[in-house]
Amino acid sequence: MFIALFGAVESGIIYAIMALGVYLTFRVLDFPDLTVDGSFVTGAAVASISIMNGVPPILATLFAAIAGFLAGCITGSLHAKGNINALLSGILMMIALYSINLRIMGQPTLSLLQESTVFKQLESIWSATGIDGLLNGMLASFGMEQLPSTWGILFVMIVATMLIKLLTDYYLKTEIGLALRATGDNQRMIRSLSANTDLLIITGVGISNALVALSGALIAQHGGFADVGMGIGMIIIGLASVIIGEALFGTKTIVWTTLAVIGGAVIYRMVVTMALRVEFLETGDMKLITALLVIAALVAPKVMRARKEKLRRKRKRAELSGTKAKGVV
C-alpha cells in the first residue's frame, strides 16, 4: 500500500504542472480549453522523438514546452482573431493535434526504455548522495518491507513544481498578469481601457498549454513511453485536480489557490490509486472514478453551504423566539 501511494504522490506532483496550466485557462482566463487533450501528447511526442534523435533530455523537455506554447497560441488565435467560439477552438485544435502528434511520432507509440531520460540521469546523480539508503533504512526500522527504489524523483519534482508555482504566482501579480485576470473577469471592461485582450488571451492559452505539454513530456519520460492516446480525458483530470484542490483547501489568494491546485492533483492520484485497489473496480473504471470525484467535489461544497445556511437560519429563528418570549414575560 505504501509503495502504491508513494507512486501516486510521485506521479501526482508531475500531473500538478498540467493542473496549473488548466487552472490558468479554466479559472483565471475563463476559457474552456480542450486543447489540453492534444497538447499533453504533443509534449510527450516532441520530447520522446527529440530524445530518440540524440537531443539531451533537458533540452528535449524544453522543446516540448515550446511546442505546447505554440499549440495554445493557435487555439487562442482561433478564438481571438478568428472569432471562433472558445470551446470550438479547443476542440478543433485538439482534433488537429491528434494528426500532428502522429506525424511527429511516426507511429502510435514510442518507447523510451532504452533511451536516456531526465529521470534516469536524475537517478544516477541522486544515488551518489546516499539519501535513499538513509531514508529506506529509517523506514525499514519501522518494519516496512517494500521500499521505493529512489526518492530522488519525488524530491526533485516537488522542488520543480513549486518553482513553476512560484513563477506562476509572480506572473499573475505582474501588470500583464493582472490584466490577464481582469480579462477573465470582464473582457469588455478591460477592452474599454485600451488593453489588448486578444494578445492577453493568446498568451494566456499559450502559457497554459506550455505547462500541459511540459507535464506530458515528463510523464512520458517517467513512464518510459509516449502514446498518441495518452491525452484522452486529460482535461477532465486537470479539472478534477483544480476543483478538488479548491474544494478542500479554499481559494483565499492566488498563492494559496495554486498551492491548492497542486494538492488537488496529488490527492486525485492518491484517491484513484486507492479506488483501483478495491476488488470490484478495474483499470477501465478510472474514467468513471474521475467523473464521480469531480461530481463529488462540485456537489459537496454546495451541500455543505446549504446545510450551514439552514443551521444559521434555525439559530436565528431560535434567538428571535427567545427574544419574543422574554418580551412577553
Description:
By secondary structure, this protein is mainly alpha-helical. It has a domain of 230 residues. Helix content is 78%, strand content 2%. The chain has 13 helices and two strands; from the N terminus they run H-H-H-H-E-H-H-H-H-H-H-E-H-H-H. A two-stranded antiparallel ribbon has the order 1-2. Helix 7 packs across helix 8. It is globular and about 85 Å long.
Characteristics:
ABC_transp_permease; membrane; transmembrane transporter activity; mainly alpha; two-stranded antiparallel ribbon; 2 strands; globular; single chain; cell membrane; transmembrane; 329 residues
Topology, please?
Blueprint: H1 2-28, H2 36-52, H3 57-80, H4 86-105, E1 109-111, H5 118-127, H6 131-141, H7 152-173, H8 175-185, H9 187-192, H10 197-223, E2 225-227, H11 234-249, H12 254-276, H13 286-328
Antiparallel strand pairs: 1-2
Helix pairs in contact: 1-7, 1-10, 1-11, 1-12, 2-3, 2-4, 2-10, 3-4, 3-10, 7-8, 7-12, 8-10, 11-12, 11-13, 12-13
